[in-house]
Amino acid sequence: MTRRENNGAVATATASTGGIGFFGLLTIVLIVLKVGAFDTVVVGWSWWLVLSPLVVGFGISMLVLLFIAIIIFVKAWGEVK
Fold first, then answer.
1. Which of 21, 37, 76, 78, CA to CA, is 20 to 30 A from 69?
2. Mean pLDDT across the stretch 8-31?
3. pTM tops 0.85, yes or no
4. Per-domain boundaries in the chain
5. Element (H, E) at 33
Protein backbone atom coordinates (compact mmCIF):
# COMPACT_ATOMS: atom_id res chain seq x y z
CA MET A 1 0.00 0.00 0.00
CA THR A 2 1.34 3.42 -0.89
CA ARG A 3 0.27 6.92 -0.02
CA ARG A 4 1.38 10.42 -1.03
CA GLU A 5 3.24 12.58 1.47
CA ASN A 6 2.78 16.35 1.62
CA ASN A 7 5.94 16.92 -0.44
CA GLY A 8 4.84 14.51 -3.17
CA ALA A 9 7.07 11.60 -2.13
CA VAL A 10 5.55 8.16 -2.06
CA ALA A 11 5.70 6.35 1.27
CA THR A 12 5.22 2.61 1.39
CA ALA A 13 3.54 0.94 4.33
CA THR A 14 5.29 -2.14 5.57
CA ALA A 15 3.55 -4.96 7.33
CA SER A 16 5.29 -6.31 10.39
CA THR A 17 5.24 -10.05 10.64
CA GLY A 18 6.04 -11.57 13.95
CA GLY A 19 4.75 -14.20 16.18
CA ILE A 20 5.83 -16.83 18.55
CA GLY A 21 7.89 -18.93 16.15
CA PHE A 22 8.71 -22.61 16.14
CA PHE A 23 11.01 -22.71 19.18
CA GLY A 24 8.64 -20.58 21.27
CA LEU A 25 5.69 -22.80 20.44
CA LEU A 26 7.72 -25.94 21.15
CA THR A 27 8.73 -24.51 24.52
CA ILE A 28 5.12 -23.76 25.43
CA VAL A 29 4.05 -27.29 24.44
CA LEU A 30 6.84 -28.82 26.53
CA ILE A 31 5.98 -26.63 29.54
CA VAL A 32 2.33 -27.68 29.32
CA LEU A 33 3.38 -31.33 29.13
CA LYS A 34 5.78 -30.88 32.05
CA VAL A 35 3.29 -29.12 34.33
CA GLY A 36 0.39 -31.29 33.24
CA ALA A 37 -3.03 -30.01 32.37
CA PHE A 38 -5.02 -32.27 34.71
CA ASP A 39 -2.75 -32.67 37.75
CA THR A 40 -0.77 -35.40 36.06
CA VAL A 41 2.81 -35.13 34.94
CA VAL A 42 2.94 -36.26 31.31
CA VAL A 43 6.66 -35.68 30.82
CA GLY A 44 9.09 -36.35 33.66
CA TRP A 45 11.95 -34.37 32.13
CA SER A 46 14.09 -31.82 33.94
CA TRP A 47 13.40 -28.15 33.40
CA TRP A 48 16.68 -27.87 31.46
CA LEU A 49 15.31 -30.19 28.78
CA VAL A 50 11.91 -28.49 28.77
CA LEU A 51 13.43 -25.03 28.26
CA SER A 52 16.16 -26.17 25.85
CA PRO A 53 14.31 -25.00 22.68
CA LEU A 54 14.81 -21.43 23.89
CA VAL A 55 18.54 -22.00 24.20
CA VAL A 56 18.70 -23.68 20.80
CA GLY A 57 16.79 -20.83 19.14
CA PHE A 58 19.07 -18.26 20.78
CA GLY A 59 22.15 -20.23 19.71
CA ILE A 60 21.02 -20.39 16.10
CA SER A 61 20.34 -16.65 16.12
CA MET A 62 23.81 -15.95 17.49
CA LEU A 63 25.43 -18.16 14.85
CA VAL A 64 23.59 -16.31 12.08
CA LEU A 65 24.65 -12.94 13.50
CA LEU A 66 28.24 -14.14 13.81
CA PHE A 67 28.21 -15.33 10.19
CA ILE A 68 26.87 -11.96 9.02
CA ALA A 69 29.49 -10.11 11.09
CA ILE A 70 32.27 -12.23 9.57
CA ILE A 71 31.02 -11.51 6.05
CA ILE A 72 30.87 -7.77 6.76
CA PHE A 73 34.37 -7.85 8.30
CA VAL A 74 35.83 -9.74 5.33
CA LYS A 75 34.26 -7.32 2.85
CA ALA A 76 35.52 -4.31 4.81
CA TRP A 77 39.00 -5.85 5.09
CA GLY A 78 39.09 -6.37 1.32
CA GLU A 79 38.23 -2.72 0.67
CA VAL A 80 41.09 -1.53 2.91
CA LYS A 81 43.77 -3.36 0.92
1. 21
2. 76
3. no
4. 21-80
5. helix 21-35
